[in-house]
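Researcher: Let's do a round of design. I'm pasting the structure tokens now; please hold your answer until I've finished.
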């Protein structure tokens, strides 16, 4: 396996780190802590592996940031970008103009999404896509003469992005604590997290209870005030929270009953992650709108958007007049050309089938065999995403003391052993590139076991298990 030569090694790691902390404010980062520690400088990648500036190889079990579905180094995407940059690097889609890649991508997205989707609104990212959702669902009810239907219901511990609307839709208390969020008209219900909220109930019974929180909230607000419900099929950044099988069908029933629009945020689950093209297909519901980003270009260039179901599209098109909303980069030709090449490659390599029939079930079996590990209270997967719940005591899923950051301890061992796995509180999560093979899963599992053992040894030595 060869990786292209890189500009990274032009400067020493210490030099990169000094320049980095002098000028670059990183997202979701304590700037002072990072400056003290120095950033890890990643310089090249191939397939499912990354290399840092020191030449250390890392198995990237997080697909960059849940996005590099086709893996690194796919020449078809590079070629598509190069061709499009030469021919037409940019033109906008405002003022009655369009470019061929944007039109072709819209056409192809209508083909690979569920049948209710025939239209797309492009954005530059998932956050922008969710801003579009907020404006669009409110506009929809305005046009229908129900302007008081404004409220959007979301969930605690959801992640829907970092713009004002995205962070408001999200249910992360740390984000709401900064910048006066949530913005008005966005409310939250509990998440369908069985291990935390459903103890004493079967998973399926808990799924119905958690969905019932939506009905209770709608009745509390009055259905005539509620515009939409938004949720990730599986909460990604919140720790890969896989809901009980009963949850989403019941959410669908409730939205149908009260006429509330159902929005699926597919930024992480879309493009094959769960073993179907879309998370809503795996989890069994039929959304009116779907946000996408990340996997649409496998992260090679930024692109996002909203699939608009015919229920909404028809009203916007036939009765709406001008929708006063859009971004300079809505339908960016280079991003769209890369997305086209990416989706064609997903089809050509049969990656969705590969996840559904081959590596998804294989990963599930591997995680199942981890369950015996003394540190694990749960080990679950869906397609090619999974989570390990780290507990002090398997019985009753007893957590570690609040001052023990067990996830960070585990993550440090992962980095030191050449594995990128994320920690979300006490959950270790993975979402490897869809091109991963069985033998690469074996390699990943060896690293995961080693890091769990090292973390357990730490915990025993430090007295955290007592
Ligand atoms: N919706 C979902 C479900 C996401 O996961 C966004 C929207 C926002 O997309 P943009 O492209 O604006 O970032 C996301 C992004 C993490 C992590 O720590 C997850 C995301 C972003 C950054 C960090 O797991 N997801």
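Researcher: That's everything. Go ahead.
Model: Designed sequence:
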């Amino acid at each position: 396996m060869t990786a292209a030569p890189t500009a990274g090694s032009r400067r020493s790691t210490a030099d990169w780190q000094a320049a980095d902390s002098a000028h670059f404010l990183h997202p979701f980062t304590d700037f002072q802590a990072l400056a003290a520690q120095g950033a890890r400088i990643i310089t090249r990648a191939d397939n499912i592996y990354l290399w840092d500036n020191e030449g250390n190889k890392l198995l990237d079990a997080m697909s960059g940031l849940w996005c590099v579905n086709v893996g690194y180094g796919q020449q078809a995407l590079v070629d598509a970008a190069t061709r499009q940059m030469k021919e037409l690097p940019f033109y906008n889609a405002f003022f009655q103009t369009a470019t061929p890649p944007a039109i072709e991508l819209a056409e192809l997205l209508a083909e690979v999404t569920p049948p209710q989707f025939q239209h797309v609104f492009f954005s530059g990212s998932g956050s922008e896509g969710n801003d579009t959702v907020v404006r669009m669902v409110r506009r929809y009810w305005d046009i229908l003469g129900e302007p008081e239907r404004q409220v959007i219901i979301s969930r605690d511990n959801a992640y829907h992005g970092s713009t004002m609307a995205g962070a408001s839709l999200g249910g992360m208390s740390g984000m709401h604590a900064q910048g006066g969020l949530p913005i008005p008209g966005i409310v939250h219900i509990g998440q369908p997290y069985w291990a935390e909220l459903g103890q004493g109930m079967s998973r399926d019974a808990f799924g119905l209870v958690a969905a019932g929180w939506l009905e209770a909230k709608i009745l509390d607000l009055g259905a005539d005030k509620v515009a939409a419900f938004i949720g990730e099929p599986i909460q990604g950044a919140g720790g890969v929270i896989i809901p009980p099988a009963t949850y989403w069908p019941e959410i669908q029933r409730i939205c149908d009953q009260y006429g509330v629009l159902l929005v699926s945020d597919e930024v992480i689950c879309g493009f094959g992650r769960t073993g179907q093209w879309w998370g809503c297909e795996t989890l069994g519901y039929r959304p009116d709108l779907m946000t996408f980003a990340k996997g649409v270009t496998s992260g090679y260039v930024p692109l996002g958007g909203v699939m608009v179901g015919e229920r909404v599209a028809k009203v916007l098109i036939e009765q709406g007049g001008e929708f006063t909303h859009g971004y300079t980069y809505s339908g960016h030709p280079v991003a769209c050309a890369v997305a086209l090449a990416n989706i064609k490659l997903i089809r050509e390599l049969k990656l969705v089938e590969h996840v559904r029939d081959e590596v998804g079930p294989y990963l599930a079996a591997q995680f199942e065999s981890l369950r015996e590990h003394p540190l694990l209270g749960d080990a679950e997967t869906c397609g090619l995403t999974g989570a390990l719940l780290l507990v002090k005591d398997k019985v009753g899923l007893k957590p570690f003391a609040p001052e023990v950051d067990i996830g960070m301890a585990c993550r440090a061992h992962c980095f030191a052993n050449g594995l990128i796995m994320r920690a979300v509180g006490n959950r270790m999560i993975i979402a490897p590139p869809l091109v991963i093979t069985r033998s690469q899963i074996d390699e990943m599992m060896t690293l995961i076991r080693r890091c769990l053992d090292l973390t357990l040894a730490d915990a025993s030595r430090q007295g955290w298990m007592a």
